[in-house]
Design a protein that fits this description.
Elements lengths: L4 H40 L4 H4 L6 H24 L4 H25 L3 H23 L18 H8 L6 H25 L14
Helix pairs in contact: 1-5, 1-7, 3-4, 4-5, 4-6, 5-7
Length: about 210
């Protein structure tokens, strides 16, 4: 079947239009796949994959940046919520803040109708939920190494679940958080379905 020049131009235009609309979703997919694969291996085979999983280049650089940012936010959450003087909230504060800050970024881009920023902020939020998921699922075993060489007694989710008398449900919490994280990833991918780009046009109407 032979295509005319007009047909080729139309296909080219449609392809370019597709890329303009979906480029962010496409470049997110590899990082999403490997982060979900990391959590899958951590929960099904060895929890140490949560910290020792190998991302391919250049995703390893992106992972290092995002994971370091999340860790800083997590530790800041302990400090911030610790000022309120409630021990339970101090322990929860790390995981809570690493979810609340990306959520605040999501709300910022949503209010300002910035679709690309909204996509990447949902990606950050989803990754943060997956990070919390592995921590929660490790509540009973307490195998994950803690920052600063802290002992097992300092494990956030062990202490949280013990205080809630729910230590046996650590995996349930982990799987729930994974589901939320994947939902955030899906939202990041599908944002272009719900956002349209409008061009502003200046109309100079001379009405007498």
């Amino acid at each position: 079947m032979n295509f005319s020049a007009i047909d080729r131009d139309q296909l080219k235009g449609q392809f370019i239009s597709f890329l303009k609309r979906w480029w962010a979703s496409l470049i997110m997919l590899p990082f999403m796949f490997y982060s979900i694969h990391q959590v899958y291996w951590a929960l099904n085979y060895n929890i140490f994959f949560a910290v020792n999983y190998s991302y391919p280049f250049p995703l390893d650089i992106i992972y290092l940046f995002v994971d370091t940012f999340i860790l800083i936010v997590h530790e800041a959450g302990h400090t911030f919520f610790g000022l309120l003087g409630w021990r339970f909230l101090t322990i929860l504060g790390g995981s809570l803040f690493q979810v609340l800050l990306p959520l605040a970024i999501v709300l910022f881009f949503w209010i300002n109708r910035k679709s690309i920023g909204l996509q990447f902020s949902f990606l950050l939020l989803g990754f943060s939920w997956l990070d919390v998921a592995t921590y929660a699922a490790d509540g009973s075993a307490r195998q994950l190494p803690l920052i600063g060489g802290l002992g097992k007694e300092s494990h956030d989710w062990y202490n949280l679940l013990v205080r809630m008398d729910a230590l046996e449900y650590d995996m349930t919490y982990g799987l729930t958080f994974i589901a939320i994280g994947i939902a955030c990833y899906l939202a990041a991918i599908l944002i272009p379905f719900f956002y349209r780009n409008y061009k502003s046009v200046d109309l100079d109407l001379q009405l007498d």
